[in-house]
Amino acid sequence: MSILIDETTTFIVQGITGREAVNLTRECLDYGAGAQIVGGVTPGRKGREVHGVPVFDTVAQAVEHHGGPIDGSVVTVPPAFTKDAVLEAIANGIKLVVIVTERIPRRDVAQMVEFAKQHDARIIGPNCLGIIVPDVIKMGGIGGPAKDAAKAYTPGPVGVISRSGGMTTEMSSTLTAAGLGQSTAVSIGGDAIIGSSYAELMPLFEADEQTEAIVIYTEPGGRMEAQLAEWVKTHDSRLPIVAFMAGRFMDEMPGMSFGHAGTIVEGKADTAAEKIQRLAEAGIVVAEEISQIPDIVKSKIAERSAV
Amino acid sequence: MRFFEYESRQIVKAAGIPVSAHGFARTPEEARRIAEEIAAPVVIKSQVLTGGRMKAGGVRFADTPDEAAKEAEFVLGLEINGHMPRGVLVDSKVSVKQEFYAGVVWDGIRKQPVMLFSDMGGIDIEEVAETHPDRVGREHFSNLMEVSDYQAKQVIASIGVTGPALTRATPILARLARLFVRHDMTLAEINPLAMLEDGSFVAVDAHMDMENEARPRQKALLQGLGVGDEETRQAREATPFELAGEEVDAQDHRGVAGNVTEFDGNLGLVIGAGGGSLTLFDAVRAHGGRPANYCEIGGNPSVAKACGLAKLVLQKPGVEKIAVMMSIVSNTRVDIVARGVIKACLELGYDPAEKIAIFRIPGAWEDEGFKILEKYGVEYCDRSVSMHEAARRAVEKIQGESARSADVQERPEVDRPHQDAGQDAPSEVTR
Question: Can you name the residues that pair with A73 across neighbouring β-strands?
């Protein structure tokens, strides 16, 4: 199985007529069984089509046209309009919103997340590439064009969670090359405040029978890794976790931002060194190099199944 | 972006929070005038975007306007942690009965802002929270409703503050919370918040950090403070090399080829994307390499941009070779980056095969890209070679080279020839 999305998932693309969104739509339609993109929204462009997907002015029109609730939305509108688009999606019954847009002020992100919580909806991102269930469906630009995504991702037992969109593919490709497929890979976004953190996705992977291990990509900045370590300690998880920590050099450069908006060392607790220690204390193996990850995952899975 | 104290005071004051009488001076003469206006003993405070100014001697006391001018002259010439002050704040010396702390920060895990208040002001709040947790009140507040005064009152009362101190501090903390939200701050802090002998409260020092992403919509605030777009307010001021990197990135809107940070090594890096650059920079260092720079490519930049970035790095003094590496790309095109970096070498009169230690960018359009690299004899690899392994090969090449040239003789630092060959690169490169 998978988490968050599967072959039955329906979704829309908000901002569908933008250049990147047009590409993304093509990629999702082409990948796996072909995503069910039931509509697109760009205000003022009603009546158009993007790769056969009908464009509407409002989310409500898309829902009406579909004739029932729509599961998700990929939001790719400029930062100043993103909050409005997300609120519109959620207010119209959409339960899973993938926000691709970057450079959204965190006040807006926090408002969207709180609104989503009130409506029992979930946000992935912002500043992310989305979700992929290998050979089945992808929701977002993750992995790129269908043929490229097919090269990197294969079905299997590993759940992947990553703060970097590109590194989601790099790590999955490394796993694939070693014969380890992925159950679901989620690019959660590189901002300081995001809709779904590692710890918030863990219960979903925990409940997914296909998933036997988790691989995460982490960076300095923020407390998400500490939250995961805490989650692991307080829950008797069946899933071994292997982590990779990038940006170790940043510990020597506090206050400087590298890579992603949320990647900045502000205090002692959010350095790479501190995070590595916390993760290790929680029994999470931190690999020195990505190429080591497959062997560690294999031995961890073997350990668990031997018990 | 961080604000200077004199700016933070203006922000706080505009939000209706009382501040001690003060003025901002760029010269000793201005400091004298402000001290005359205040007509009482003053404190001269260095205006730098770094901590530890007290320890460094950047805070001085003066009883007369003449003394104020003299102390200002000293502070204006005092470098603190590598920063020269922008000016001095001339602040009236208030007689403080008790020092408090008021602050608002984000909690990235709860995804809500949190108000903080302590009756142990004047020292680092993290230290207080560790040593006296019962003396720090805190409460999260909703993103969907404006903060109401009672929420601030609860925070302050939770540490046992009552009487007039409670009623006077309440609107200050509530206003601080509202300005935090309104102005997209990531940190809004008054420390110390002083209760004077007469029971009134004034902000004696304030520290504000605003989110960079919010700059477009906080234009009015920034204009009011006279902060221009060119002021990035990074932790370290941008070097000319880094500014040149920004220019490269700004030449067109396609993709990113910038975010350059200067280091002092000999291996130039043309790397990407966000997470890939972090990984590769670590990898180069893990293998004993000395990067000349950090940078990020992503989002499918044009040939011109990739070329501009590579040229910039190649021309940096001390750079012997460049390594062109990324995590697997799905949006950025391998062939475009390949063209850009080869063009950069050729235009500077270098042999790409010699100058490019390794090219490791797998992904979209890789076959086309690899073909071009092959033609110019550049060593490249696909996804079967890990990022760490590619970094190792690059380091090995450059160290072999350095070791060899060190053997021959200790060569003096010479300016490398900046050959503007002016020759056009072959068409498949420029296309």
Answer: A12, A97
Separation between Cα atoms, residue A7 and residue A136, nearest integer Å:
6
Higher pLDDT, A1 or B96: B96
CA pair distance B181, B147, nearest whole angstrom? 9
Partner A contacted by B298 (CB < 8 A): yes
Cβ–Cβ of B143/A111 closer than 8 Å?
yes
For A195-214, write each residue's pLDDT tens digit: 999 999 999 999 999 999 99
**Average pLDDT in chain A:** 96
Q: Do A291 and B388 touch (CB under 8 A)?
A: yes
Structure tokens at A108: 């807006």
Structural contact between residues A40 and A66, judged by C-beta atoms closer than 8 angstroms: no
Secondary structure string (H, E, C) spanning A148-166:
HHHHHCCEEEEEEEECCHH
Q: Does the annotation mark A66 as catalytic?
A: no
Contact A167 B329 (CB under 8 A): no
Structure tokens at B300: 């499918």
- Indicate the residue type of B428: E
Ranges of H-type helices in B209-333:
219-225, 240-250, 274-286, 303-314
Query: 10 Å Cβ neighbour count for A249?
Result: 19
How many whole angstroms separate alpha carbon A249 and alpha carbon B267?
16
Helices (H) and strands (E) in chain B, counts: 15, 15
Asked whether the predicted pLDDT for residue B415 surpasses 70, the reply is no
Q: Which of A145, A180, A183, A194 is nearest to A302 (CA)?
A: A180
**Nearest chain B alpha carbon to A142:** B330
When pLDDT is averaged across residues A186-194 and rounded to a whole number, the result is 96
3-state secondary structure A162-228: ECCHHHHHHHHHHHHHCCCCEEEEEECCCCCCCCCCHHHHHHHHHCCCCCCEEEEEECCCCCHHHHH
Tokens for A105, please give them.
């002020």
CA distances from B331 to A74, A155, A200 (A): 17, 22, 28
CA distances from A230 to A122, A163, A223, A227 (A): 22, 18, 11, 5
- Cα B226 from Cα B248, distance rounded (Å): 27
Query: Which residues of B are less than 8 Å from A260 in CB distance?
Result: 274-275
